[in-house]
């Protein structure tokens, strides 16, 4: 896995999460228009070797602030999906997608960045920005909510809102995921297949294939990623789940194997 040094936003490769001395922070967020790729960060790193500048100071605002926040919490390394995966390599992309649940689980801390939530938001209000945050509607952010042991939610100005544990009751109302799962009193795998599918039912992804790929970790399955296969990806996911589970709640859930 590739990680960013929090002091300089320089990329370094590690063979596995446990190879990262001191652990690492990881970012959970929703994608916007302004993002830097793996290649762009590499180019920035090379440019700054010539100019003597700190690449962190020239990185995108999200990467810059994430590195600063992680460093402030005592971590030398951080993972940001936009720039820590070489998406030009289909092999690396597939490996990353299949490993992502593990990478979030192994992180010492996950920062849930809510770019549409102000820090003075009244969280409990029925129409609060926190309740309506895009983050709660994303497909990928479901596993990013459940997998890490510590999730710290931060507002658009990167100020702390609260932790997953502190906000578990409110998060249950918003996401449908039980507070016992969020506080780790109950392991998520004890929830039926149908219930886990239901957690994802109101969420969406930009690419249709990701509706399946973002759930692999939640069901502890692996399969090749084939962008371009469309909704067949979800059918493949269901077949893989069936092969390793006798849980018939898969069929009680609202989406059948033959659905488009």
UniProtKB/TrEMBL annotation:
Top-level taxonomic group: Eukaryota
Looking up Pfam families in the UniProt record yields: DUF8212, HET
List each copy of the DUF8212 domain by range.
232-256
Q: What is this protein called?
A: HET-domain-containing protein
Q: Where is the Heterokaryon incompatibility domain?
A: 24-120
């Amino acid at each position: 896995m590739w990680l960013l040094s929090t002091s300089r936003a320089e990329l370094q490769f590690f063979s596995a999460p446990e190879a990262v001395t001191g652990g690492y922070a990881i970012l959970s967020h929703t994608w916007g228009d302004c993002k830097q790729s793996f290649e762009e960060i590499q180019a920035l790193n090379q440019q700054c070797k010539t100019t003597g500048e700190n690449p962190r100071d020239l990185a995108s605002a999200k990467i810059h602030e994430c590195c600063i926040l992680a460093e402030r919490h005592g971590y030398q390394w951080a993972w940001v999906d936009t720039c820590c995966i070489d998406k030009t390599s289909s092999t690396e992309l597939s490996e990353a997608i299949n490993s992502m649940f593990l990478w979030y689980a192994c992180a010492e801390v996950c920062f849930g960045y809510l770019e549409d939530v102000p820090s003075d938001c009244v969280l409990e209000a029925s129409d609060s920005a926190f309740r309506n945050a895009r983050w709660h509607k994303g497909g990928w952010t479901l596993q990013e909510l459940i997998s890490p042991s510590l999730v710290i939610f931060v507002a658009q100005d990167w100020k702390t809102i609260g932790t997953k544990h502190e906000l578990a009751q409110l998060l249950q109302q918003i996401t449908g995921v039980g507070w016992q799962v969020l506080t780790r009193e109950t392991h998520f795998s004890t929830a039926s297949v149908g219930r886990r599918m239901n957690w994802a039912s109101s969420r969406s992804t930009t690419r249709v294939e990701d509706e399946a790929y973002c759930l692999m970790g939640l069901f502890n399955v692996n399969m090749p990623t084939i962008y371009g296969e469309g909704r067949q990806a979800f059918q493949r996911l269901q077949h893989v789940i069936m092969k390793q589970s006798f849980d018939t709640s898969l069929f009680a859930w609202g989406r059948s194997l033959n659905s488009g």
